[in-house]
Amino acid sequence: MSTAADIVRREAIAEYALIGAPPEPDLQGLVDLAATVCGVPTAVINIIDDRAQHQIAAIGFEPSVCSREDSMCNAVFQEPGHVVVPDAREDARFRDNPFVTGDIASIRFYASSPLITPKGVPIGTLCVFDDVVGDLSEQRSRSLALLAHQVVDVLELRRMTRELSRSNAQLAEFAGQVSHDLRNPLTALRGFLELAADSPELADAPTASGALARAEGAAERMSAMVEDLLDYARVGGSLRRSRVDLGAVVADALDDLDASVAAAGAVVEVEPLPHVTGDATLLRALMQNLLANAVKFAGAERGRPRVSVRAHDVGSSWRIAVDDDGPGIPPHERERVFGLLARGGSGDVEGSGIGLSTCRRIVEAHGGSIGIDDAAAGGASVWVLLPADG
Fold it and tell me: pLDDT at residue 199 above 60?
């Protein structure tokens, strides 16, 4: 059974994406150097999880996988400092090990230095050994420890490079999210300004004034969203949690979607909504996307398209559902539509479908979940679980 330390180590190893990956040339170079510096024919980098020892780079033999119980390094890799054993047959930790007894190998000289992550988690060793008795001078021993540190540096560089690539991809996706989320308030802004421009200057001054006020509100929300989303990207996706009134959030989103709702001839019904804990800007982007999708796919077969928003208390969370009366989404398609650029429904519906991918990211960042069920009206019911206001 895995211990808490095993779970932490497994998670640390997973961050480096080593297991099953092609050999890393820089790591191979370090084991070659370790063997040369220590004057032995064999050296290996061992990564040890809660079940097995994975040899990810080796010289003198082909790297493989063995059980953790058979591993010599398993006996010492969590200890600080490094280990030098001139003759493993005379060491109680190793004398019965199959790598010493001849069942797997006949190792005599053994030395290793632990691989410790910057967070202090031991994940394996840099190990050198020979089938004859031997020893390391103090200088060679220090060199082995230094090379072990270099192994961890290479692993960290590999991790950071992979994260940078992922961040670049997320940045491109983020740019798509921003342009998508700003399209609706911008459409509302243009519509209100056109209404004001078409209003007779004197005869319809109240209408013009009201339209301009709504335009100003849409512009302010758009400006706030730009600033907040850019701040969100700038700090690496950290949430700014506060008490959020979902009723007000949905009201603002519907105001920004006014032109789309009117063009569809849709009826949107909103039940009383709760306060939740979360990032107000991201939750507005979430609800705006869910509402925009529902309006887009709502059907008109039974009269005016209908969309409803409702909430259900499930203890420490609220289940918020946005339902439409459109064609719905078959169960086998429901996971696919959360993929970036995927979209459900018929192929003649405009839009990239980036909304649901964005919604999943936002919900998961809040520690919640999102899914799709059948709506009572026959369409899709997209639901999210969000933490209740604490």
Answer: no
pLDDT at 350 over 50: no
Residue 82 has a pLDDT of 83
Task: Count Cβ atoms within 10 A of the Cβ of residue 112 and give its class: 0-12 exposed, 13-18 middle, 19 or more buried.
Answer: buried
3-state secondary structure (DSSP) of residue 20: coil
Q: Is the per-residue pLDDT at 38 higher than 90? A: yes
**Do residues 147 and 34 touch, judged by C-beta distance below 8 A?**
yes
Question: Rounded to whole angstroms, what are the CA distances from 133 to 129, 323, 348?
Answer: 9, 74, 76
- In this structure, are residues 379 and 299 in contact, taking their beta carbons and an 8 Å threshold? yes
Q: Do domains 4-164 and 239-390 have the same CATH topology?
A: no
Is the pTM higher than 0.85?
no
Class in CATH terms, 4-164:
alpha beta
In this structure, the number of other CB atoms found within 10 A of the CB of residue 129 comes to 26
Place domain 239-390 in its CATH homologous superfamily.
Histidine kinase-like ATPase, C-terminal domain (3.30.565.10)
- Residue ranges of the domains in the chain? 4-164, 239-390
Tokens at 179, concatenated: 């342009």
Residue 365: pLDDT over 90: no
